[in-house]
């Protein structure tokens, strides 16, 4: 929706009294999300209607309640926004990956435990993003996505929750495993962030689940195929050294720019 036009007093009054045609009302409501001047004009028009006094009383009651319950409300909103990202199958998968790597490295003495962990770690947050946003993850997704806090903002909130859980768990697990010539335990962080942001950047075009399948599948094919016996050498080329890490940092920056440039495209992404 273009931000160059502004609503007239007459249009605002017709919206307030319900006489504005429905398509025009939808258009105006979308415009109000990004135009404070028009929002103030419409609010003034609504206050002048019969419903104005009722709405004023409701607003006062809501604000009074919010003042009394600000700490609880903010914490509850945070848990609600991040909830689907840190519960269910993804959390179990994260613990399985970390636990299996520790068991393999500590109890069987397998020298390739860290190598396998580094091969899988970048796709764990990608899977978390895929499972945390959309109708399949949240029964209230359509309602949440239609609010000012929905769309990209909600997706980034849940992505941050996924990263906040997976990054320390997987990196600490890598530090506890024998190096045995594998890249450093934290070498997967930039690739993991790049793949996660790339998933977000692709999501408006394909949906979150397909986007995550493309990014995670591409990484796994590049690292594990065609010969699993060469995983260590391929990981070293992908993760070790300033050139490889600089390339991943550039991928992170590019994906972040795409997210910023196409932020409005996330309003209807599943």
Automatic annotation (TrEMBL):
Leader sequence segment: none
Residue runs in coiled coils: none
Give the record's keywords alphabetically: Membrane, Transcription, Transcription regulation, Transmembrane, Transmembrane helix
- Lineage of source species: Bacteria, Bacillati, Actinomycetota, Actinomycetes, Kitasatosporales
Transmembrane spans: 78-104, 116-135, 155-177, 184-202, 247-265
The reply on keyword Transport is no
Q: Where in this chain does the record put each Putative zinc-finger domain?
A: 13-39
| InterPro entries given in the database record | Anti_sigma_zinc_sf, Znf_put
Protein name per the record: Zf-HC2 domain-containing protein
List, alphabetically, the Pfam families matched. Answer: zf-HC2
